[in-house]
UniProtKB/TrEMBL annotation:
Keywords: Membrane, Transmembrane, Transmembrane helix. The chain crosses the membrane at residues 24-45, 57-75, 87-106. It comes from Blastococcus aggregatus. The keyword NADP does not apply. This is Helix-hairpin-helix motif-containing protein. The keyword Cytoplasm does not apply. It holds the Pfam family HHH_3. SUPFAM superfamilies: RuvA domain 2-like. InterPro entries: RuvA_2-like.
Length: 235
């Protein structure tokens, strides 16, 4: 006799701890702080999504939190019989906190899904931060192919020279033959002393490096700096 089929636990059924880590803390913080810290989840979402409207909400809830703190701080202490020292002010404070908590939770529902995904866990390639990094890498590869076909466009478009402000998005490349040390350090995310050594070395060689191999052979660089330059340097 075939035993009855028992349904497996749904893959999306998360434990309480998993739900908390996957955005549930947004609501817990907004409610547990009586709305005072409701801005924190909005700032977190704004940093992950890089959206102006979310940043505006974060500023709004920051102002609301300041308002609640001031309101609660001016409330007189309770009387000896346990009643409020100022019933009107207490009512205003309670209703204000409730309003902030309810509206924040409503607006956080969609933001939690946008940041953490509908199931509560963010797939790696759906993470906005990962998506931006992969997009920039693809743009760098496309730009390298472009200047390999049309070398003259490197100078015209300001490729590898964000300080020139030509407007072309090269994905974060850096021209190690023409950029100043501070620009090389900032774009390639290497130490200033390493960027200065790159500039000093190219000056000693007549103003330019031939390729990455020559640069690495002649400039003492940390492994992380070499990795960054291999990813971003153009010549």
């Amino acid at each position: 006799m075939t035993p009855p089929h028992l349904p497996a636990r749904a893959a999306s059924a998360l434990t309480a701890g998993e739900r908390f880590r996957a955005g549930g803390w947004y609501f817990v913080l907004a409610i547990a702080s009586a709305g005072i810290l409701a801005a924190v989840p909005f700032w977190h979402a704004a940093s992950r999504l890089a959206r102006r409207d979310v940043r505006t909400l974060a500023l709004t809830y920051t102002a609301a939190g300041v308002y609640l703190v001031i309101l609660f701080s001016i409330m007189p202490p309770q009387q000896a019989d346990g009643t409020s020292g100022n019933p009107t002010l207490s009512t205003i404070g309670g209703l204000s906190a409730l309003f902030v908590m309810v509206i924040a939770c409503i607006q956080l529902r969609s933001l939690r899904r946008a940041v953490y995904g509908g199931g509560g866990v963010v797939p790696v390639h759906a993470d906005p931060v990962v998506a931006r990094a992969l997009g920039a890498r693809a743009r760098r590869q496309e730009t390298r192919q472009l200047i390999a076909r049309e070398p003259g466009l490197q100078r015209e478009l300001g490729i590898g020279r964000p300080d020139l402000g030509r407007g072309y998005d090269d994905g974060g490349l850096i021209d190690v033959n023409t950029a100043q040390a501070e620009v090389i350090a900032r774009v390639a995310d290497i130490a200033p002393r390493e960027a200065e050594a790159i500039v000093a070395g190219r000056t000693a060689r007549g103003g330019s490096w031939y390729d990455m191999a020559e640069l690495i052979d002649n400039v003492p660089l940390t492994p992380s700096a070499r990795e960054q330059l291999q990813e971003r340097a153009v010549f």
